[in-house]
């Protein structure tokens, strides 16, 4: 029986079983689509002791992260979000030339570049070599490493502890959660602050965002569970921001538990209460999620079948990890979606894992004039509908699959 990533209790309760799926960031070349492709169970559990929602680990992280196709800088709204964070946190913590900021999962330097521009000393820690190289090329000091207690000790030896340890969308991807949070505890200067952003489990469940579940995301956090995990490592959450990013995220603020200089804020108390009334501390709440997901699959297929029967053509927009979970779970291949497009040149000319839908550059949409564009990164739908407003010239319409199938003329 699998054991909980955090508390080691046996996992006995299924949240949703999404069947067999390939690694969602393994975009295939033309040669690779003729070979065997590994599929792994995508089975989500909830721990009856600590309520951590998690995917059993089938693949070692080295296999996932050595070459990673996700470059944060290809989304304009994500860049704007991180730029605003850089300004806010610099002011809030009075960061300057004497400070030290370490970002965990720093990707291509999308955030730290803004702090570098302010003259604040930074270091990025990024496990994917190709992505780390992109950060270094834009002047963001970065080491290629998985983060944990050992890496934290080395960093302290090199340059001391950090005033700010931050990370966005990294906590879910950590295979050894206790080693990771334990490393943060070591790396944090007395009086320092930790900020971590992650998709909010409460929103994932309420808004049916099951496609954000994939093998690369081991854990899915409520505020209450995150608080429990940080507390086990001597860190207290004293504030929280609710963010619109990735369908609804939390940014938690932590400090050393002994550091009473910052009291625990009212937003923390209020969010804990809301999670309790949403039933996140009861197993029945998690059990009800599966039926909602099954119904979404039926509705999406019904829509696509109807459109194809009328002889209309559908293209995809985007090749995000979440799209691959959705398409594989629903069994949607080129029989429904002819191709998809993505701004990331790494993905262009490749094929989606499992479904083998080809990925082109966005110009393909203007050339082929499809009747419908299925927006796979639905969290960016407003930005994408603006960029592709021209499809209305030929009567093209947008389709957003999550939280429910919706057509935008
Ligand atoms: Zn547990």
Cα-to-Cα separation, first versus last residue:
49 Å
Bound molecules: zinc ion
- The proportion of residues in beta strands is 15-25%
The percent range for helix content is 25-40%
Numbering strands along the chain, what is their spatial order in the largest sheet? 6-5-4-7-8-11-10
> Number of helical runs?
14
Residue windows where pLDDT falls under 50 for at least 5 positions: none
Query: Mean pLDDT score, rounded?
Result: 94
Task: Give a description of the structure.
- The model has no long low-confidence stretch (mean pLDDT about 95).
- The protein is globular, with a radius of gyration of 21 Å.
- It contains 14 helices and 17 strands.
- It is an alpha/beta fold and about 400 residues long.
- The structure holds zinc ion (ZN).
- Zinc ion (ZN) binds next to loops.
Task: List the SSEs and their pairings.
Elements: E1 13-21, E2 40-46, E3 53-55, H1 61-65, H2 76-92, E4 101-104, H3 112-117, E5 122-125, H4 129-137, E6 142-143, H5 149-159, E7 162-168, H6 177-187, E8 188-199, H7 201-206, E9 219-220, H8 223-231, E10 235-243, E11 249-256, H9 266-277, H10 283-287, H11 289-309, E12 314-317, H12 321-330, E13 340-341, E14 359-360, H13 363-368, E15 372-375, H14 381-387, E16 397-400, E17 406-408
Bound molecules: zinc ion.
Residues 4, 6-7, 9, 47, 49-50, 52 line the site of zinc ion.
């Amino acid at each position: 029986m699998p054991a909980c990533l955090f508390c080691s209790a046996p996992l006995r309760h299924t949240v949703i079983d999404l069947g067999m799926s390939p690694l969602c960031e393994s975009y295939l070349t033309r040669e690779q689509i003729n070979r065997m492709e590994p599929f792994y169970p995508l089975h989500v559990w909830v721990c009856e002791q600590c309520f951590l929602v998690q995917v059993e680990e089938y693949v070692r992280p080295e296999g996932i992260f050595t070459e990673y196709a996700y470059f944060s800088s290809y989304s304009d709204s994500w860049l704007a979000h991180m730029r605003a964070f850089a300004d806010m946190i610099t002011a809030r913590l009075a960061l300057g030339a004497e400070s030290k900021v370490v970002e965990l999962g720093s990707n291509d330097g999308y955030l730290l570049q803004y702090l570098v521009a302010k003259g604040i000393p930074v270091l990025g820690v990024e496990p994917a070599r190709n992505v780390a190289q992109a950060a270094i090329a834009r002047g963001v000091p970065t080491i290629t490493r998985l983060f944990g207690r050992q890496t934290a000790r080395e960093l302290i030896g090199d340059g001391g502890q950090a005033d700010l340890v931050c990370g966005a969308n990294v906590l879910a991807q950590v295979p050894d959660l206790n080693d990771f949070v334990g490393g943060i505890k070591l790396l944090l200067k007395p009086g320092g602050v930790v900020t971590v952003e992650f998709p909010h489990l409460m929103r994932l469940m309420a808004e049916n965002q099951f496609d954000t579940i994939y093998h690369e995301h081991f854990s899915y956090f409520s505020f209450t569970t995150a608080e429990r995990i940080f507390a086990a490592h001597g860190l207290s959450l004293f504030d929280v921001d609710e963010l619109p990013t990735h369908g609804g995220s939390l940014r938690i603020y932590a400090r050393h538990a002994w550091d009473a200089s910052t009291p625990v804020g009212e937003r923390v108390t209020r969010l804990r209460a809301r999670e309790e009334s949403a039933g996140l501390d009861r197993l029945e709440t998690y059990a009800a999620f599966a039926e909602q997901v099954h119904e979404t699959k039926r509705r999406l297929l019904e829509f696509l079948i109807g459109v194809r029967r009328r002889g209309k053509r559908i293209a995809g927009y985007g090749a995000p990890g979440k799209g691959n979970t959705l398409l594989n779970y629903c069994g949607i291949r080129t029989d429904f979606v002819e191709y998809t497009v993505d701004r990331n040149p790494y993905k262009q000319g490749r094929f989606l894992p499992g479904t083998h839908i080809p990925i082109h550059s966005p110009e393909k949409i203007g050339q082929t004039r499809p009747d419908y564009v299925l927006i796979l990164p639905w969290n960016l739908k407003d930005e994408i509908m603006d960029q592709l407003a021209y499809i209305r010239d030929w009567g093209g319409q947008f389709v957003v699959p999550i939280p429910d199938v919706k057509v935008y003329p």
